[in-house]
Design a protein that fits this description.
Elements: H1 2-9, H2 15-21, H3 23-43, H4 48-65, H5 73-83, H6 96-104, E1 106-111, E2 116-121, E3 129-135, E4 138-141, H7 171-174
Antiparallel strand pairs: 1-2, 2-3, 3-4
Helix pairs in contact: 2-3, 4-5
Length: 191
């Protein structure tokens, strides 16, 4: 009976199966899959010109979609998802809205090792706000209408010396200092 038990515990796995079933083997396989995924991301990263073309189209679509009333941020997400698969309609490239966009906003593309990002730079966002990500050959827009500047107006009372005047504090406002004396605990006076 002891010989039978020893036979049942024997495994007929080859070296590859033992490697696959070991913890070290699974870690190596996971690292190889991640390296392959990063390599594919590296070779399919959109170029700067592809990002510029796609984002200009997506921004024109964003300008075109904002004719109607928006309910919440979900509308922007749905529109941006749909903009991946469509192109801008008949909003002419010389229209007043597009001319205002080009006048007050600048689109810049940054190339990263495995992806690209597009940023809108304007007076509201001088360091830029991300409006698109390009990865695996696809440009995913994240543009929102509130990220764009389409008109500029003068600031009222710009030349005024103090726009916000600080309050004047007098001695009457602060009250009087209380008479604070040193206190020494003398124990319980009743005992």
């Amino acid at each position: 009976m002891a010989a039978n038990q020893k036979e049942s515990y024997k495994t007929n796995q080859n070296l590859l199966q033992e490697f696959y079933h070991s913890c070290f083997g699974k870690i190596i396989i996971l690292l190889l899959m991640m390296a392959l995924l990063l390599f594919v991301a590296l070779i399919t990263r959109p170029t700067k010109q592809q990002m510029l073309d796609e984002m200009e189209d997506n921004i024109r679509e964003c300008l075109q979609e904002n004719d109607s009333i928006k309910a919440d941020g979900v509308d922007d997400v749905v529109n941006n998802f749909c903009n991946i698969f469509t192109t801008a309609g008949e909003l002419a490239s010389d229209s007043d809205v597009v001319a205002a966009y080009k006048k007050f906003n600048r689109l810049e593309v940054y190339q990263h090792p495995f992806y690209s990002t597009a940023h809108i730079i304007n007076n509201i966002h001088p360091s830029g706000v991300r409006v698109g990500i390009g990865v695996f050959g696809v440009v995913i827009p994240t543009v929102s209408y509130k990220d764009l500047i389409l008109f500029v107006s003068p600031i009222k009372n710009y030349n005024k010396t103090h726009i916000i005047t600080p309050p004047v504090i007098t001695d009457d406002d602060l009250g009087e200092n209380p008479n604070v004396q040193e206190y020494h605990y003398l124990g319980d006076p009743d005992q």
